[in-house]
Amino acid sequence: MKCRKCGNKASIHMRQHKLALCKEHYLDWIPEQTERFIKKYQMFARDEKILVAVSGGKDSLSLWDILARLGYQADGLYLALGIDEGINYSHESQRLSQKFADEHNLKLHVVDIEKEYGKNIPQLAVISHRGDGRPCAVCGLAKRHEMNRIARDLGYDALATGHNLDDEAAVLFGNTLNWLSEYILRQSPVLPASSDGLSRKVKPLCRFYEREMTAYAILRGIEYIYEECPFATGSQAILYKETLNQLETARPGAKLTFFLNFLEAKKSGNLFVEKNVEMQRLHSCPRCGQPTSAPELCSFCRMIQKAETISTM
Ligand code: SF4
Ligand code: ZN
Ligand code: ZN
Hints:
Blueprint: E1 12-14, E2 19-21, H1 23-40, E3 49-54, H2 58-69, E4 73-80, H3 89-103, E5 108-112, H4 113-117, H5 121-128, H6 136-153, E6 158-160, H7 165-177, H8 181-186, E7 190-191, E8 200-202, H9 210-219, H10 236-250, H11 254-267, H12 277-280, E9 283-284, E10 291-292, H13 299-312
Parallel strand pairs: 3-4, 3-6, 4-5, 6-8
Antiparallel strand pairs: 1-2, 7-8, 9-10
The structure holds iron/sulfur cluster and zinc ion (2 copies).
Residues 3, 5-6, 8, 21-22, 24-25 line the site of one zinc ion.
């Protein structure tokens, strides 16, 4: 497979875009596309200050890298959750986030939940009895709360997260399976700031597949934490991702179509709109008496009529 731009050996082939690129052109393509999405969804402007939520994983570090390469004023925020069961997850992800910031001369704010509130996430989860025994409900709540607090207190115009297409498609899939219409309607590449104090939230990577972000991080030489949080194992989100991956294997591009068609339908106001206009225009078919919206005979009777004419010919 050859790079479409220069003809050299391709490093990545994106079946859904029918596009293969070499390392050099791929590393240009990702920021170009990101810039296109930032503009298309009106995420933020050149003179605005962006706070990137950094977890030490490939997506958030790549996002930070891309925004910095594009020349945006992007600082990082790392939340130390205190999840160090087994693999030293928090410790290692903080080290890698700090290392990235230092190497790229970027500013990283660190908020340690335990230092700030006296307890870390697993401890807060035990105390609050929220959720299914995993600390995820508490963790999500704390992350949303703290990211918004820092973004507001430090005067950032937007809070950027590294959610990729696989994340977004899995969330949409889960919400659709359960018909959580309010959540479905709120899902968006950009959520505007609210007058009651929620900062603007943006997801510049929401149209990139997870494998595209992995390829970007590796080809850029970004050192990131490979392990997932130990509490992620067996979660619903992972089940939805696996299901969508099967679909994607059978139908390349399925995830992207699912997400983009959703955004289109939402934009045109076609989500959850009751359409009973047609119902009112129904009349009985003069031949069979069943309701139809066709001007004369119903479609079935027209088909039969046609069949009759042909058989008598
Ligand atoms: Fe927090 Fe880990 Fe759960 Fe993610 S998987 S919400 S990081 S506890
Ligand atoms: Zn090339
Ligand atoms: Zn509060």
